[in-house]
Design brief:
Blueprint: H1 2-10, H2 13-28, E1 34-37, E2 45-51, E3 62-68, E4 79-82, H3 112-124, H4 134-142, H5 144-159, H6 161-202
Antiparallel strand pairs: 1-2, 2-3, 3-4
Helix pairs in contact: 4-5
Length: 203
């Protein structure tokens, strides 16, 4: 925590003011499919969720990303990470994002919104030429169907956890209900059998 808070101390007050203003704007008027979470204690630690774009293997997933503004921001670009596990050519195993906007194409006037939109675009059009995940980059170029299936699997497992948990809870509820019905019907059958036995005894 100390290292991230020291970035706030090292940033010029004008930069802090500028970032704070942009984050407020992003919170009040977020880009489509992107939601920003502001860390009041440390504005250099920016987190957001990005909805997996329709028509991609990431559709239906909700991906949490993190931008870390270093002490040289905005001269140097922030670092970007996926906190949600994802199978993507431009995302390393530790979640680090390789985006030209965050590297060689960085310009000081590009803000947080531009970066988040660029990351979202990367989910639509990955760049296998600057792959941090070589396996994903190779599959994307040579066996797209395999790449798509793997990316979808990761999305289903890691980016849809809440939905799965909810549906399994509902499923468990249905199962419990069905078991209850079965027990009730078994009891009813037992009762009928006993009544039948009594009736036969009377005869």
């Amino acid at each position: 925590m100390a290292s991230t808070s020291s970035n706030v101390e090292n940033l010029h007050p004008q930069i802090i003011k500028q970032v704070s203003k942009e984050l407020t704007s992003l919170t009040n008027d977020p880009p489509e499919g992107i939601k920003v979470f502001v860390n009041e204690q440390d504005i250099t630690d920016i987190q957001a969720t990005i909805e997996g774009p329709a028509g991609t293997p990431y559709e239906g997933g909700l991906f949490r990303v993190k931008l870390v503004l270093g002490k040289d921001y905005p001269t140097a670009p922030p670092k970007g990470f996926f906190l949600t596990k994802i199978f993507h050519p431009n995302v390393a195993s530790n979640g680090e994002i390789c985006v030209n906007t965050l590297k060689k194409d960085w310009k000081q006037d590009l803000g947080v919104k531009h970066i988040l939109l660029t990351v979202k675009c990367l989910l639509i059009v990955p760049n296998p030429e600057s792959a941090l995940n070589e396996e994903a980059g190779k599959l994307l170029l040579e066996k797209y169907d395999d790449y798509s299936k793997r990316a979808q699997l990761f999305t289903d497992i890691h980016a849809k956890i809440k939905l799965k948990a909810e549906s399994s809870e509902k499923g468990d509820g249905v199962e419990v209900m069905m078991q209850g019905i079965k027990r009730a019907s078994d009891k009813a059958l037992d009762k009928k059998k006993k009544e039948k036995k009594r009736a036969l005894k009377r005869l």
